[in-house]
Design brief:
The longest helix has 25 residues, at about 65-90. The chain has a five-stranded parallel sheet, sandwiched between helices. The chain has helices at about 20-35, 50-55, 65-90, 100-105, 115-120, 135-145, 155-175, 190-205; strands at about 10-15, 40, 95-100, 130-135, 180-185. The radius of gyration is 16 Å and the shape is globular. The two termini are about 20 Å apart. About 55% of the residues lie in helices and about 15% in strands. Bound molecules: thymidine-5'-diphosphate.
């Protein structure tokens, strides 16, 4: 499904530790310096369902199974679009989202049928552009450990390896769906990655 708005909806995706959050913030400042109004947002959100998802991710004994979690991510996403993304795009603002349905396709399809996850996410509009920050799972794991934060459900090396493979599949799938996708080597410096992102976003501003 394509976006009904003229304003750009930009998504940054990638493994934990790939630097997505940093790049979202840098892109926001860069756009603001150019006089754009930007809404920076992320999934899972801090809306009610998103908060609940974070609790589930940190609870190894959670009674919420993977299929239910997949629906919860979908519910959070709909809530996110309705309350934040669409209103901002309607106002002519640029939206940058740290993760979107590509994360569901990559993470939830590890334990669930890919088509099941794709179906839950099938009605969400495609972003104007999606940047995938590509990183070796070993490097991702090191970076996540360095953060020293509690390890979530997805953050063991074996899982990161599977997620990295899963992202490859998502990129192929979304490319086949005609999405506008840019893959970036996330072992480059923060500035190099930022420059590449800006080069792709700049032409969207003059449209
Ligand atoms: P993350 O962006 O890492 O949030 P934070 O840095 O604030 O903790 O997202 C939390 C985890 O949720 C991350 O490991 C990816 C996972 N996730 C999914 O499994 N499915 C999804 O649809 C989304 C949006 C995230």
């Amino acid at each position: 499904m394509s976006m009904q708005h003229n304003s750009p909806y930009i998504v940054i995706e990638g493994l934990d530790g790939a630097g997505g959050t940093t790049q979202c913030r840098l892109l926001q400042s860069w756009l603001e310096q150019r006089g754009c109004t930007v809404v920076l947002t992320n999934e899972p959100t801090n809306l009610p369902v998103g908060k609940f998802i974070r609790q589930v991710l940190q609870d190894p004994d959670s009674l919420i199974g993977d299929a239910v979690l997949s629906y919860l991510f979908g519910a959070d996403r709909q809530n996110h679009l309705d309350t934040r993304v669409f209103p901002a795009l309607d106002r002519g603002e640029i939206v940058i989202s740290d993760r979107y349905y590509h994360s569901s396709l990559a993470y939830q399809s590890l334990s669930l049928d890919f088509d099941f996850v794709a179906k839950i996410n099938g009605q969400f509009p495609a972003p104007s552009i999606t940047f995938f920050l590509m990183l070796e799972p070993e490097i991702s794991f090191e970076r996540v450990q360095l953060r020293g934060l509690p390890v979530e459900r997805f953050e063991t090396l074996d899982r990161l390896r599977s997620i990295a493979q899963s992202y490859e599949r998502v990129i192929q799938y979304c490319t086949e769906q005609g999405e506008n996708i840019v893959c970036i080597d996330a072992t480059q410096t923060i500035d190099e990655i930022h420059d590449t992102i800006c080069q792709h976003v700049e032409p969207m501003l003059t449209q």
